Amino acid sequence: MHTLPESAVPRRAGRPSRLSREMVLAAALELLGDEGADHFSIAKLGKRLDATAMSIYTYFPSRDALLEAVAEHIFALFEPPPAMDRWQDYILEWLRAITLHFERFPVALQVLAWDEHISVSWLRAWLPVMRVLQEQEPDPKNLAAICDWFLTATIGFINAHHNGPKRMAVLPEDVLQRLDSKDRRLLEDMRQHQGGPNEKWRLEYAFQNIIDGLEGLVKKTDFTEAKRRPSQ
User: Fold this and answer.
1) Total-model pTM
2) Tally of CB atoms within 10 A around 57
């Protein structure tokens, strides 16, 4: 999904009379949505545009430059929340805002980072959170650990939320017959009742757990090893 003007989207039939930066970006968004960043190439994009790779390089000197331009287009539209009194409230609102942004632009998940490259535009989008966390944990080493955990938890959940199965698949009868009767009933009950009337609770529950995790980390003084639960 993107917000480029409809006129910028390349026509599939026939060679376009003139290529443009907007047409290349629109086709790149479409190709990324279909195949992902791992399989994205200038050659494939040229084939989709019915254009040569050299003509695309006229607008973007490299694959990285094109992917960064896509990221810039997407994340320039992200609006972080205003400053708040409590850092927990700010990060909660940021989580809600970034999740909605990924729902609006699913391709954004493809251009956070690729190969050994991290998107500058994505960094700008989440640096406000890093600055808020820095106020709670000024030690650079500890802050790095906290931010790493935060990003892993946040992006991991958002990616699963958007790309994971929304509902349990219907299991074939031959598969169900390989389970005992109690397990079959359990799976059937889960499949019939999963989600409930409103799945928003899943997002809010995850966000609150991320905030709780951050609160625990900013109070932690030793980051050399994880705390272990006492033996039962």
Assistant:
1) 0.79
2) 15
pLDDT digits (tens, 9 = 90+) for 69-101: 999 999 999 999 999 999 999 999 999 999 999
Compute the CA torsion angle 186, 202, 109, 12 (nearest 10 deg). Answer: 70
Return all residues near 27 (Cβ < 8 A) that are at least 6 apart.
9, 10, 45, 48, 49
- The CATH code of domain 6-61 reads 1.10.10.60
Domain boundaries, given as residue ranges, for the chain: 6-61, 87-218
Residue owning tokens 């999740």: 99
3-state helix, strand, coil in the chain (%, to 5): 65, 0, 35
**Under DSSP, is residue 165 helix (H, G, I), strand (E, B) or coil?**
coil
CA distance 199 to 96: 14
Question: CA-CA distance, 108 to 3, in Å (whole number)?
Answer: 13
- State the amino acid at position 17 in one-letter form: S
